[in-house]
Write a structure and sequence with these properties.
- There is one protein chain.
- This protein is mainly alpha-helical.
- The chain has one domain.
- The protein is built from 13 helices and five strands.
- It has a three-stranded antiparallel beta sheet.
- A hairpin with a 2-residue loop joins strand 2 and strand 3.
- Helix 3 crosses helix 10, helix 7 packs across helix 10 and helix 7 packs antiparallel against helix 12.
- The longest helix is centred in the middle third of the chain and has 28 residues.
- Bound molecules: iron/sulfur cluster (SF4) (2 copies).
Length: 292
Amino acid sequence: MLREILPDIYQQILPSDFLNLNPQETKATCSNCLKSRPGPDVAAPYYDARLKCCTYYPFLPNYLVGAILTEASDAGLETEGSSRIRGLIRERRFTLPIGVCAPPGYQEKFNATRSEAFGRDPELLCPFYIFKTGQCGVWRHRGHECATFFCTSSYGQRGESFWHEVRNLLHYTEMYLSQEAMLFKGFSSSEIDTNLTFIRQPPEQPSGAAWQTGALGWSQIWAHHHDDIEGYYKATYAFVLKHAMTLRKQVSDEKFRTGETDTRILRNLIVGAKVSKNHSAGQSPQAAARRV
Ligand code: SF4
Ligand code: SF4
């Protein structure tokens, strides 16, 4: 069910009929990556098996960053996820009040090289990917792109439409909750807009400086929270948990009961669909590459 696929926090935020949708995806076998081995329709694998489709830098909203840090602190452990987030904060690597986003330098390189380099260039690897084990360091709290990404759907085209809609709903939810959390922590609407710029269309940076925020820019972006960034992220997570009932109503009323995003229509895409036997495992790498 979607409730097992999506990050835990959404149990309290998203409507039950949505979470109870039950897509059965069996083709995207990530532990033995479908795209990293030859198949009946493909002579050579698309991706390097050590990298898979994690040559991507996903957006991670502030409250999910907070969930990762809070869980690690509560357990008295440094987890892979918490240690990488702390490293990104130390290095001022675009850990922003709205969440962790791809540095402009990364976005530029990704956009310029993705057709050849996706799945093949280790320089594009996600900062949360555990190279030694081939696993995700933030799996239980991953962002909307990763939680809804199946390079091949068992339902063929209908499955792709299903995941496209679920991805959009989750993206909307991330944007809504992360901005509500910023307002709660005292950021203004124009400060939120500045944060959004880094996700939508990063400002041009001098060459070589585009992977790290400069010290001045960093303290401006973080305004009144720059001395306790970890505490800020944890507070955004606590905010979403504490106000889950209200946020759930706002998110549901706004997005989950209208037009083509009605849960019944989503269910029909997978319940009414024949599971495709012929859906090609050899679709083009571009089609399978992460959407941005
Ligand atoms: S979703 Fe990614 S890891 Fe999973 S099978 Fe497809 S390419 Fe491989
Ligand atoms: S967050 Fe996890 S699943 Fe997503 S790209 Fe990174 S390592 Fe892969």
